[in-house]
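User: I've been trying to design a sequence by hand for this structure and keep getting stuck. Would you show me what you'd pick, starting by listing the structure so we're on the same page?

Assistant: Good idea, let's start from the same input. This is the structure you sent:
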């Protein structure tokens, strides 16, 4: 079937192949750009616009003009395929004169630029054999000259080219199909909703994205499209949230007596920030709907203590609590810390990790099922099919950024409706909190407990390595301990690992001879890691050469020196987290970033690290430098990438869309109302099976 065969049958879901001007070959090329249907074409927006100036008469061209725009009819055209630089050339005439146009490697123009066609071109004027000519000018083929105002400036769309398709072909396909498709675009909102938010109609916005009258018009179109994009995402999040909080949960209020009893367990007073988080969590726990909250704060800000507060509240109500850590080392560390707080209490605490014996596991399983354990700390082994609780009141997940929105739903899907608390030591900017954690409420601990030493961070070029080692030796001789961190870009890549192994040998044999240096990396068996960590914690190892396994929560107060090798290879958030490992005691700590930044962005990253230890500032900066896609690949969080909206620039818009989306779902949880049908279809189309979205209605 050809496009001609179905001239009137065009629908939004018509395969691109049947769109006029596409056909099977281009359809395949479009598919490589992710464009499969007519609707995808509508949403394939220009990357930018080139301004085509008002056209001037060819007769008025001057030999030195650097930006001329002219239009005229093609007199003759030919493709010269010989030589290293084949070219396509033609001449055009507008009645006042003629000029030669030449495109190197312009074979693709052969079919489109033929005698009699009218072109508008702009570019630099040059002289060749006494003729004016334009080399590789920007070109627009004017098919309907009536509709084109050559006497005015015009914005020419430049589409992201690729898959074998140049921007010009995409532009012409889209230009031709727009008039037929725009009337098919369904509006999501009524006039009132739109006008109160200053948004233009959806179809109008799509048109403005492709062929705006001027930049202002485009800006308004973009705003509407960005709003819609945020809207879909926020609707999905609102639905996920609705699903998780609509189940009943046990209300577990922490009255004054419980509060006093819990606080008495801690050998310190909570910081003001911890108190705020505790109050927010306690309010959630007191409700008959499950808490659904993110607790964020820098490493060492005291999140675990807050989580323990929540767990003890649940236990006071005779419910069980589970704390899940991303690694065994961390689980063990949490377990020990918590055990020390709970020493002498009646709380029955257990540890569940992967490497326990089957017998031990069976006993634990039975205890959990019988309710003989109050608080279990563990790894994802806690998610095992065979693990059942008698009455699980609270789940705490540490270092959540390893899980996506979709996985998050899985953790809770075990027939329980426990309260749910997520902890992350990666502070994220508010915009991102509204997206990747958009189904959660957020509590923030933005203050470290008192009495911490300062962490001073310096950038040192590789040339000064000797001095660095000398500095480290002094610190070790004075009884402190040090980390040497190596980037492991890809843990399965042998080369990266070798770097750490080699460094370990070198340090032990040379730079740090006389001290005990040990190696820890991601591919070691858990037991060995555990063993090395224990020796380090006990002060038996002076320096630890590590891949990023120490990222997630090692707590050794005496380790106050950290050398980060190849610091330019890390992002911003990671070194920041890493250095959270030091400065945990009262002594001042030193973080030495060894690196040779070779581009301004890497340079800026390292500079920010040296300037501040404020995790939120660093997160904002990271977002600015890298963009949200990379920083927190929304896709890896189960959310589609935003194409139009910019999480940095469109913060207000995102907030607006979020408020609207949550209001819509609160009023119509399954989007069943007739006036929500277009929205409902749109969300099913873009999110389909993702996030396990299904409508109750
Ligand atoms: P996080 O989980 O945020 O990294 P932790 O809860 O593990 O932080 O706390 C880090 C360290 O600070 C622990 O040794 C803990 O005992 C201590 N700590 C936590 N809260 C306070 C506080 N309010 N005052 C003093 N020390 C605290
Ligand atoms: Mg922690």
């Amino acid at each position: 079937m050809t496009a001609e065969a179905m001239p009137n049958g065009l629908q939004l879901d018509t395969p691109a192949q049947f769109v006029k001007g596409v056909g099977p070959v281009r359809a395949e090329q479009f598919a490589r750009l992710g464009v499969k249907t007519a609707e995808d074409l509508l949403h394939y927006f220009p990357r930018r616009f080139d301004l085509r100036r008002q056209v001037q008469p060819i007769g008025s061209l001057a030999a030195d003009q650097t930006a001329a725009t002219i239009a005229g009819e093609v007199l003759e055209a030919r493709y010269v395929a010989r030589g290293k630089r084949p070219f396509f050339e033609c001449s055009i005439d507008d009645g006042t004169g003629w000029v030669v146009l030449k495109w190197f490697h312009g074979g693709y123009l052969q079919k489109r630029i033929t005698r009699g066609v009218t072109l508008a071109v702009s570019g630099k004027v040059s002289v060749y054999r006494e003729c004016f000519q334009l080399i590789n000018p920007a070109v627009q083929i004017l098919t309907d000259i009536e509709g084109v105002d050559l006497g005015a400036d015009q914005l020419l769309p430049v589409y992201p080219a690729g898959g074998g398709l140049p921007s010009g072909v995409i532009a012409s396909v889209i230009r031709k199909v727009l008039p037929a498709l725009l009337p098919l675009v369904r509006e999501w909102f009524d006039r009132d909703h739109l006008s109160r938010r200053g948004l233009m109609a959806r179809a109008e916005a799509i048109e403005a994205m492709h062929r705006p009258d001027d930049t202002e018009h485009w800006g308004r179109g973009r705003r509407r499209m960005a709003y819609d994009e945020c809207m879909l995402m926020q609707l999905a999040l609102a639905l996920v949230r609705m699903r998780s909080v609509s189940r009943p949960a046990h209300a577990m209020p922490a009255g004054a007596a419980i509060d006093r009893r819990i606080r008495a367990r801690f050998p310190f007073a909570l910081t003001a920030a911890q108190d705020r988080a505790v109050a927010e969590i306690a309010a959630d726990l007191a409700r008959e709907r499950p808490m659904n909250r993110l607790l964020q704060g820098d490493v060492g800000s005291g999140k675990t203590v807050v989580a323990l507060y929540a767990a003890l509240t649940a236990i006071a109500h005779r419910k069980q609590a589970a704390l899940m850590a991303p690694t065994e080392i961390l689980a063990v560390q949490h377990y020990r810390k918590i055990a020390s707080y709970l020493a002498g209490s009646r709380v029955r605490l257990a540890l569940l990790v992967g490497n326990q014996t089957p017998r031990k596991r069976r006993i634990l399983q039975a205890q959990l099922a019988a309710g003989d354990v109050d608080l279990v700390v563990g790894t994802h082994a806690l998610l095992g099919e065979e693990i059942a609780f008698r009455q699980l009141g609270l789940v705490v997940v540490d270092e959540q950024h390893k899980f996506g929105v979709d996985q998050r739903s899985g953790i809770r899907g075990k027939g329980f409706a426990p309260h749910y608390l997520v902890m992350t030591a990666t502070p994220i900017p508010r915009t991102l909190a509204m997206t990747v954690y958009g189904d959660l409420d957020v509590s923030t601990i933005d203050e470290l407990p008192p009495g911490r030493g300062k962490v001073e961070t310096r950038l040192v070029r590789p040339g000064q390595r000797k001095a660095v080692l000398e500095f480290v030796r002094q610190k070790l001789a004075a009884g402190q301990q040090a980390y040497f961190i190596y980037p492991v870009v890809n843990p399965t890549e042998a080369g990266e690992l070798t770097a750490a192994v080699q460094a370990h040998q070198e340090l032990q044999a040379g730079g740090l001879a006389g001290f005990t240096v040990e190696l820890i990396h991601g591919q070691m068996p858990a037991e060995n890691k555990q063993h090395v960590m224990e020796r380090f914690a006990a002060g038996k190892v002076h320096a630890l050469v590590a891949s990023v396994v120490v990222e997630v929560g090692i707590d050794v107060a005496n380790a106050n020196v950290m050398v980060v090798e190849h610091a330019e290879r890390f992002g911003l958030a990671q070194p920041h987290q890493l250095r959270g490992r030091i400065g945990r005691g009262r002594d001042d700590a030193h973080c030495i970033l060894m690196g040779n930044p070779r581009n301004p962005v890497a340079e800026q990253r390292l500079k920010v690290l040296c300037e501040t230890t404020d995790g939120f500032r660093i997160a904002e900066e990271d977002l600015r430098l890298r963009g949200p896609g990379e920083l927190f690949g929304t896709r890896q969080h189960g959310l589609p990438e935003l194409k139009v909206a910019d999480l940095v620039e469109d913060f207000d818009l995102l907030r607006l869309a979020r408020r609207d989306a949550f209001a819509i779902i609160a009023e119509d949880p399954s989007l069943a109302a007739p006036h929500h049908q277009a929205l409902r279809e749109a969300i099913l189309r873009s999110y389909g099976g993702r996030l396990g979205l299904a409508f109750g209605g």
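That's my pick for every position. To get oriented when you compare it with your attempt: The CA atoms of residues 139 and 245 lie 56 Å apart. Residues 1-7, 629-636 have pLDDT under 50 and may be disordered.
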